[in-house]
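name: query_chain
kind: protein
chains: 1
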Amino acid sequence: MTKILFVCHGNICRSPMAEFIMKDMVKRAGLEDCFSIASAATSTEETGNPVYPAARRKLAEHGIACAGKTARRLTAEDYRRYDLLIGMDQANLRNMRRICGGDPAGKLRLLLEYAGRPGDEVSDPWYTGDFEAAWLDIEAGCRGLLDRLKKDIH
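structure:
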């Protein structure tokens, strides 16, 4: 089983969107037993808060529910627990390295690497208000990630 943790600053917009988009893709592919997928934050600002309403609405537009998800902070233990820890932007990666004590096993990545866009960052709708742009970035990254991981399964 491949364990994936998506990470953003607050765990209320981008990383939970990635978590639930990826869970939906995995379910549609009939591969639910092959993956464990979650999300976390690099900050404590939103700990315990639900997915941001606009992010929930964007997921719901695509028939994806995220009920019950609340923000939590990334821990050093997560580095040991997960196979891939995927950040949305460079600031996330820097904070992930700090929290995890580096990246000795090469588990930390940017989501858009999997969309063939190395170095690109997922648009942050918290600041832009553009949840459609975030959706498109995240969907492309998740689709590329799933395509890559399916090769290891088959």
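note: The radius of gyration is 14 Å.
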